[in-house]
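<instruction>
Derive structure tokens from the sequence
<data>
Labelled lines for chain and fold:
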Amino acid sequence: MSYIKDKVIVVTGASGGIGKATAEHLAKEGAKVVLAARNEKELRGIVQEIEGNGGVATFKATDISSRDEVSALIDFTVDNYGRVDTLINNAGLMLFSKWDNAHVDEWEKMINLNLKGVLYGIAAVLPKMKKQGSGQIINVGSVAGHAVGEGHGVYSATKYATRAITESLRKEISVNHNIQAVYVSPGVIATNWQDKVTDKDVSSVLGNLNEVAIAPEHVAETIAFAVNKPSNVMINDIFVTPTKQEW
């Protein structure tokens, strides 16, 4: 039995990488997917591809670091499909840098997207799910939310925080409102994330990681495994990493 089919699923950061792969995978499994990211052109193309393959999808261009836009995204989903069964908080930035170089602007970008964006999604979707009496909130974290590596400082801080948020959701919300809270921890994934890193002092770290990176489709399959559960079964923490990654 499939618990994915006909679920209404919102995927943030869906214009590429893990988000795109996840939206496509879930649509193939019969979910109705709503894709969110800032790049409207990319979203439109992905939706057209999903629909061309027989899937059901729509999109809304959304800046996840804006509370109002995230709230509008959830309202848009309910207006179109009548409910939100699953929110996948995937959007994020991974900007490694050394403390000595004090990339404060980049720290703020990661905090706004990786942390505040997750909180905005939770705040927007919780009332809908409580009214439904069920739902899933899946936060895409990182192995950096379990162990800190060189140049990972602020990025790891945002992922540790998201992990704490997810655990708190389980204790307060899952047990009382039948809303599953899941933390998925990918390792190094081939999403070209390193192209956004500006600190040249971490180039050796990036090179080592890129040698073992795996495709985002593997993370998509892992997320789908968590989605494909009945309401009385919850996957708490799940890791998906390259076999050769040390962390």
